[in-house]
Design goal:
The chain is α/β, with parallel strands linked by helices. It folds into 2 domains: about 130 residues, HAD superfamily/HAD-like (Rossmann fold, 3-Layer(aba) Sandwich), CATH 3.40.50.1000; about 90 residues, no CATH class. The protein contains 11 helices and 7 strands. The strands form 2 sheets. The protein has a 5-stranded parallel beta sheet, with helices on both faces. The protein has a two-stranded antiparallel sheet with strand order 2-3. β6, α10 and β7 form a beta-alpha-beta unit. It starts with a strand and ends in a 5-residue tail after the last helix. The model has no long low-confidence stretch (mean pLDDT about 95). This is HAD family hydrolase.
């Protein structure tokens, strides 16, 4: 069957979160707090190792007291906040309010940058009459990020784990996305950066294409092959 719909993951696929250094620096600035450059670099390094920045580096270790909430963090807004603020609290910060401030900062549209070819690919799919959906493991509403960057008009549907109570690779999330667009899974391509989570779409019958989760400047054209996959003639 020909590909008539493309589903995209969010973080690491269409958008990339700011660096841990920039994340911490922005929150300190907003709170009128300061650290020396050395202190900031050390603290940011510890937050990165803890995995405290959603969309940033994965935790090197999940503390035992957070293991349960971490495993289901993307199924509920409160669990998501608890998991990531819990990881951040593994790192001493000068004020207690900074933990929630850091979490709030990562949801701000300004904290996210689209990959250089994302707009070109989304517009190219629109020109081809291909439906576009976003399927994300996430604990908050990412739609404002798409609106702020001018991408919302290029997306037909959003299927977000916290709104459905299930997270990828559970096929129920992909099924909801396909049904929301009225598509047979065999007509759908899932594009993501996580082999396990996004690869779950294959169990439903979707085609799957992976990109590398890299900083924006290191992946200028990682999404462009998607247009070729859509243009390809279906197998007889």
């Amino acid at each position: 069957m020909a590909i008539k719909t493309v589903l995209f993951d969010f973080s690491g696929t269409l958008f990339r979160i700011e660096s841990t250094d920039d994340w911490l620096r922005a929150v300190l600035r907003e709170g009128a707090l300061s650290m020396s450059e050395g202190e900031l670099a050390e603290c940011a390094g510890r937050l990165a190792a803890a995995g405290a920045l959603p969309g940033g580096p994965a935790p090197l270790r999940i503390p035992d007291h957070l293991s349960q909430v971490w495993s289901v963090r993307d199924t509920d807004m409160d669990r998501h906040r608890a998991a990531y603020t819990g990881l951040a609290r593994e790192v001493p910060l000068p004020e207690d309010g900074l933990y929630d401030a850091l979490y709030d900062r990562h949801m701000a549209p300004v904290a996210w940058s689209p990959y250089p070819d994302a707009a070109q690919v989304l517009r190219g799919l629109r020109e081809r009459g291909v439906d576009v959906g976003v399927v994300s493991n996430i604990g908050w509403d990412l739609r404002p990020v798409f609106r702020a960057h001018g991408f919302d008009e290029l997306v037909d549907t959003y299927t977000l784990s916290f709104e459905h109570g299930v997270q990828k690779p559970d096929v129920r999330l992909f099924r909801s996305a396909c049904e929301g667009l009225g598509r047979d899974p065999r007509e759908v391509l899932m594009v993501g950066d996580d082999r396990r989570a996004d690869g779950g779409a294959a169990e439903l019958g979707c085609a799957v294409h992976f990109v590398d989760h890299l900083p924006v400047h290191e992946r200028p054209a990682g999404l462009l092959p998607v247009l070729g996959l859509v243009d390809r003639e279906p197998a007889p």
